[in-house]
Amino acid sequence: MSSVPPAIASAYDPERFRAEGHRLIDAIAAALVSWHAREGVVLPWRPPADALAEWPLARGELVADLQRILASSTALAHPRYMGHQVPPPLPGAALAELVSAILNNGMAVFEMGPAAAPIELAVVDWMARTLGYGDRAGGVLTSGGSLGNLTALLAMRQAKAGFDVWRDGLHAGPPLAVITSADAHYSVVRTLRIMGLGEGGVIVAPIDAQHRLRASAVEAALASAGDRRVIGIVAAAGSTATGAFDPLDELADVAARHGLWLHVDAAHGGAVALSAAHRDKLAGIGRADSIVWDAHKLMMMPALVTAVLFKQGGHVYDAFAQQASYLFAAAAPDDTWWDLGQRTLECTKRMMAIEVWTALRVHGEDFFGAVVDRLVALAGELASRVRASGDFELAIEPALNIVCYRHRAPGDLDAHNRALRRRVVEDGRFYIVGTQLPAGYFLRSTIMNPLTEPSDFDDLLEHLRALCRG
Amino acid sequence: MSSVPPAIASAYDPERFRAEGHRLIDAIAAALVSWHAREGVVLPWRPPADALAEWPLARGELVADLQRILASSTALAHPRYMGHQVPPPLPGAALAELVSAILNNGMAVFEMGPAAAPIELAVVDWMARTLGYGDRAGGVLTSGGSLGNLTALLAMRQAKAGFDVWRDGLHAGPPLAVITSADAHYSVVRTLRIMGLGEGGVIVAPIDAQHRLRASAVEAALASAGDRRVIGIVAAAGSTATGAFDPLDELADVAARHGLWLHVDAAHGGAVALSAAHRDKLAGIGRADSIVWDAHKLMMMPALVTAVLFKQGGHVYDAFAQQASYLFAAAAPDDTWWDLGQRTLECTKRMMAIEVWTALRVHGEDFFGAVVDRLVALAGELASRVRASGDFELAIEPALNIVCYRHRAPGDLDAHNRALRRRVVEDGRFYIVGTQLPAGYFLRSTIMNPLTEPSDFDDLLEHLRALCRG
User: pTM for the whole thing?
Assistant: First the structure.
């Protein structure tokens, strides 16, 4: 057969990579400069149907195409991005992602990640200790909070069902159910449906005035379970809607009293453990049986880097232990603890630990506490401006870096604020989102960009007023 | 409050990114030059316990740390990488990943991916058409084949159970089961366990001499189902162990005859549709109800980019449709077809389409067919050398780019080849894997690097002989 065809040699040519890479680095640096200077819009809005026609699969040039994508995406790095709980990543972490992509070490087995696998174990160990877990803890990194919650709830199901669900299926026992709050992330309910529990598999307990799940609500939910066997509680440490923290010590007590598994969805709030000023919000988290923590939220990593942590590390194998002869050398997990594929739903996965590991080495742990402190302080600045405004009002006092507020106007408040949010999106100079709370529809700003300044909030409120007038 | 603290300003400084980025591009280019020249080892093996101690969370410098990771990882770009079915990514696709990472557009909603969402829809449409699906097809990209198979099997469960599993749970009907082959990827069995079906939820049908699932085996499996309701068939288009292609037309016929859902795991083999020489292996795939295709296999993308495709696009909503007021503007999918979060288990996800989109624009569709043709031809070169060798033998003729072979020696062949594989790993100059087939343990090489040359196989066989002697 012939030697490497020219088109293939060209596509893999290191000098081509070098030239395109240097051009791209400059293009990204220029975009960062522009965004940080508050130039242009945060959200280059296009009607979706129009956008669909604008990205044809015709021939193109790599760097030009990527520059167009940079200019046409939502600019999380713009200080007026105050929307979803996804951060502007640390630029150095994006560089680590480039290394992850070029190496492509899939690391289901140690051989396919002789650097990535030990780095992941170091990062998981650090995350577990940061949350107060002890020597027996264990865990794994996986692609996102939804997959993380699924992994943890599978371990809960296996540990607490009272029969071997993995082997015998759900038919072999009574209906199972999990107690969670009305504010739980939609992935929790979705996960239980995936697992075959149906709508009866979720007992939604009411929240208190601060949007927290209390032990008394859990007790009432237990009393309402009927013929269902309740296997656990899913608590939130930084709820998605409002950033509320459930009282974990209180929930650990009620879980212990009834022999339930306590899972804490700390996807958003886990990083609060790095802040001396705010870590008390997580009091009791070390008593949870399992925890999910997204490093791609308050640790400023690019998506997706989720840790699933278990107080008893052995639980990490419960959900998935299974033989695959082309992958794992032995069936017994103890023999191959370094083959991380046994711990996740994922077979091939990204080298997601290296960005956390390098960021901790470059910036130090305290840096991340300072980021959390700044984001929480910024949220306080927005809340105080809303409080003082006269024409805006808060839904509740922010517990962290999420502020829910609305504009006051005569007539239907929900319709007014929905329409206002729509105008913000189509204008694009600021980006905020909205959420439906029991008290009505509210605007919602998660402060994720530490380059935001308090004056940006003055400008936001003026911008909203101007849109109402216009 | 104070302005942006210096440590935070420094971490986000575009000029710091520019300087570190240029250094990193040169470091990666140098590594590519070295790997392509066959310098150094493919696998820098360390005993796992030693490796664990070598990556402490002390202070470090970004580019130096990343260079050390480059030097300590498995070099898929080295032409003597002949191991798992994960490719050396196109360097340009790794650059697209850098853009994905810095933008971090999570795209559960269109606003969080005004470029990424339409690009994903364009890529999904292209992939569906490439496999022969028509105008009514639909799908989504997700993080990996395991998650992709889970998504497809959830749609199968909802469509074919005969009752509303999503709403009422598995308890509301008879036990369910899926027929698959003994060669199915372990994630398929794992997925059904996750979904609550237990070991009874899988009926493993025997394979023929070419490792294919035949209609007759499906019929026999159906006859053995007992009180279980069989809902579908999972076929492989490029099985993991040997690369075998199940006869899809035959399986579509038997599925139609019995009202079953046909899912095709074409994670590995989907890209064969791009090769005029080999696409007949996929004959009938357009009749499948759902297909999974990993672009991070034979399309040379970095992991993870998996398409889940449905012949009837509406099925994409069946598994997950659910209200999340802070995300989706409306409950009805038709109103917000561009909010891709309704289609996946993932809420936040990576902008994974942009690397496929740019690669197709830069290189053109034919390029990917040429890559497939070269990898298959290379596998044929290895197979013919094994056949001609006298001291090695093939397990079966390769159907694609996976070659299973073993060294012949007196005594316990399995133990001999396992020990040989272990020596290859610890030596590191070549990388191959192994697999347990019904006929015994075999060495396994998936040819994924188009820069490999036939002479590398001569060197591989000599290397194996030398390790046997040593």
Answer: 0.96
